[in-house]
């Protein structure tokens, strides 16, 4: 009798394990953004024409979902934007700022590509290559002198990957555990470029701000994980249109206490602490729930105001965009 009972218990455990394969899976998700080395091009004369001075910033954005230390899904994009200043110290900033992936063929790299592939097509190929790879494999890939991965993907990805792969590794290292059963993942960003004109006693300023986010959703469209962050870069210019040297910054989340908002905060919380509270608030919410969050001058009201007093309009818009862009996780191979 005892042998029969033991056999029944073993069979029951085996059936349970087979009927819920996802129960043993551990999911982690990480998002990271890195500002590539900015470029400043001074005004120059060519063929009798004088060009405007130009400042350009590129922010590489990566979100990766890991399943038991294997890349389950990955999203790679780059927000590359520039602004110009003429010899009279008048700036021109872009009114539309799509990312490289959002530009698609309009990025216009195909003719210059040795494999006749646009940026987004090569990134799609890189993402497909990385899915299914173990973390140690991804971190072990070497880049050749052209910044291309020395692997089979070289025939379909010829763009320079130094900043992209460095950001991929950072995203993996930043990965946090996700509770629940992920079904979709989405990421997005939105950039604004603003100009503060030159005055008699103050230099002009070009400010590049990128709000970005990532979400993991369950089968009901509810948020299992949310990440929000902001990248702020800027460059000064004078009344003759001469740009100062551009420097790059880490995001607000990465800067932590160095962002220096604590003293000005009415609740004595740094930006990253409030962002973390906002992320926690988003968990369990649907897009409709998030749209319904009451804001006053871009800041939360009600109970959320006790832990979040920062302006979240741009972050909320980014989260909703990430939910809208969310795609199904790849099927198991």
Characterize the largest beta sheet: strand count, sense, and whether it forms a barrel.
6 strands, antiparallel
Q: How many DSSP H or I helices?
A: 9
Element-level helix/strand string: HEEEEEEEHHHHEEEEHHHEEHE
- How much β-strand is present in the residues? 25-35%
The gyration radius over C-alpha positions equals 23 Å
- How many distinct beta strands? 14
Overall structural class, as computed from helix and strand content, comes to alpha+beta
Fraction of residues in helix: 25-40%
- Tell me which oligomeric state these chains represent: single chain
Mean pLDDT: 92
- Principal-axes shape call: globular
**CA distance, first residue to last residue:** 43 Å
Outline of the structure:
It is built from nine helices and 14 strands.
Q: Any overview of this molecule?
A:
This protein is of the alpha+beta class. It has a domain at 24-251. Helices cover 26% and strands 30% of the residues. It has helices at 2-19, 100-103, 119-130, 135-140, 162-173, 252-255, 271-282, 287-291, 313-325; strands spanning 27-35, 39-41, 45-46, 49-50, 53-67, 70-85, 91-92, 176-178, 184-196, 204-217, 223-237, 295-296, 299-300, 327-328. Mean pLDDT is 92; it is low at 5-10.
